[in-house]
Amino acid sequence: MELRHLQYFVAVAEEMSISRAAQRLHMAQPPLSNQIKQLESELGVLLFERTSRGVRLTEAGEMLLEEARRFFIQLDQAVRVVQRVGHGEVGRLALGFVPSASNEILPEILHSFRELYPGVELFLSEMKPDQIVQQLHEGKIDAGFLYLPLEDPSLSIERVSREPLVLALPERHPLAPEPEVDLREVAHEPFILPMRYRLMPGLHGQVTEACRRAGFVPNAVQKDVWLMQTIVGLVAGGLGVALVPASVQNLSRKGVLYKRVSGLSPSVELGFVWPPARSSPVLEAFLAVVRENSHDPVGAQPHLE
Fold first, then answer.
1. What would the pLDDT profile of 162-209 be if each residue is shown by its tens digit?
2. pTM attached to this predicted model
3. Buried b (16+ CB within 10 A) or exposed e, 150-175
4. Is CATH 3.40.190.10 what the domain over 92-159+273-299 is classified as, yes or no?
5. The domain 161-268 is classified under which CATH number: 3.30.70.980, 1.10.150.130, 3.40.190.10, 3.40.1010.10?
């Protein structure tokens, strides 16, 4: 079977007439009819029922039409990809990221990468950290941004930013006038905690560890909250206090004050993770941009091969 046989078949199937298909293909009717017969002979099935009004697809013909259309779509996509490679406009990259990454460092990275590689298609998806890891293993995304620590020997991990935790308070809180707050001063306050994920302490682990070092276990009135916007919103509503990454202050939210935490200097780390076994030129280029825009260039963790 040759490509032209499928093209002829699709034309006849769509026109439901050999004569109209011949006009569409700018060829004579007899050769087209012979080509269709050759195709049917090669496949060993009838693709059309001949009638006085033209032709009608058989069940086998309907199936072939569906597959042929799908094939031509894939072929067209392949041609466009090859053309883009020939023009130096190469590749695609699928990234997962925790929403907080977009508060500061991710926009800088994306802006720099887009300037350097305008032809690379980027597919970005907000995800929970466990979803990022799962989709990396399943090959559905190429890399991701999430909070560390992460223990996974099959992934390469590189720290891209480190920032302090700050205390988010309702604007009418008694500690509102203070420039900074000792965590022990809110030990008995209701806390709003971020979500904890199985085998991935992440931001939840950093928050609870900071409280533990201050000598208390946070009294969680709201826990397993995924989005920073939601946590800040609950603080604004007076439901409690929260420890959040300092970059959350970039979110404009009425009714919330942010205070430095004295003494312990707790911090959180955002990491870039990817499976080294599936590295590619596009991913390497993106990693180079990540490193250039890192807020913690000296803090790269060794690759976990």
1. 988 999 999 999 999 998 999 999 999 999 998 887 667 778 888 898
2. 0.64
3. beeeebbbbbbbbbebbbbbbeebeb
4. yes
5. 3.40.190.10
